[in-house]
Design a protein that fits this description.
By secondary structure, the chain is of the alpha/beta class. The chain has 6 helices and 10 strands, in the order E-E-E-H-E-H-H-E-H-E-E-E-E-H-E-H. The strands form 3 sheets. A 6-stranded mixed β-sheet has the order 4-1-5-9-6-10, sandwiched between helices. Strands 2-3 form a two-stranded antiparallel sheet. Strands 7-8 form a two-stranded antiparallel sheet. The longest helix has 13 residues. It starts with a strand and ends with a helix.
Length: 229
């Protein structure tokens, strides 16, 4: 299976200006994700998708391939990951380079343990999923079976159940996306116009160092975490 690794890094970040190339412990943020991708034996090719000349210059310095410049209309705050991935596939296809699946690797989740990408790809291919994402367990206090939503000025259980599950031990495990890995079959992206499809596999990263950088507080957390890695 030919799998394309895509690192998306647009310019114009508002929460942390220039965050994708801002230095974290002396290295541009996107370099951490590139290093993880380079270590993979199962990615057929790794590219950067960006609209920003400064990000391109940084990528070239670290050896990250930039085969095209992403158009500005696909680098807006409202641009979806699905649009970015489909554009990359379609652009490369024009040059006769096609892939069976895509592995999206966001630079804002820089800490991936060694071998994570290949473990995810292996599980994805062996499970014949439409997609596979990396997830972390939701703490019991925030389990959706214990979460309420407001309706008509009253609270109801977010899952729609009439009675709340009384004991922590009875709660089913629930997960949230951690943003580190999204793998999707090209056929699902193209035919279903979806990053997920109907059969979603997962790899559990709970317990490993984690931060998803969006605001300055997240960056500060990353600076603290990296001291122990």
């Amino acid at each position: 299976m030919r799998i394309l690794g895509i690192i998306p890094a647009r310019g114009g970040s508002k929460g942390i200006p220039g965050k994708n190339i801002k230095l974290l412990a002396g290295k541009p943020l996107l370099e951490y994700t590139f290093e993880s991708a380079k270590a993979s034996a199962l990615l057929s090719r790794v590219i950067l998708s960006t609209d920003d000349p400064e990000i391109i210059r940084t990528a070239e310095k670290i050896g990250l391939e930039v085969p095209f410049i992403r158009p500005g209309n696909l680098a807006e705050d409202t641009t979806t990951s699905l649009e970015v991935v489909k554009h990359a596939l379609e652009t490369l296809k024009l040059n006769g380079d096609e892939y069976d699946a895509v592995c999206l690797l966001q630079p804002t989740t820089p800490f991936r343990h060694q071998g994570l990408i290949d473990s995810a790809i292996k599980k994805f291919t062996e499970g014949n999923f439409d997609s596979l994402i990396s997830v972390r367990e939701v703490p019991a206090d925030f389990n959706p079976h214990w979460v309420f939503e407001e309706k008509d000025g009253k609270l109801q259980i977010a899952t729609g159940e009439q009675e709340i599950i009384p004991r922590r031990q009875e709660l089913p495990k629930t997960y949230h996306r951690d943003g580190a890995i999204y793998i999707t079959k090209t056929s699902v992206l193209t035919n279903q116009n979806s990053l997920y499809g109907k059969h979603i596999g997962f790899i559990n990263t709970t317990g490993s160092p984690y931060v998803n950088i969006d605001i300055p507080k997240d960056w500060e957390e990353a600076e603290q975490l990296i001291k122990f890695l």
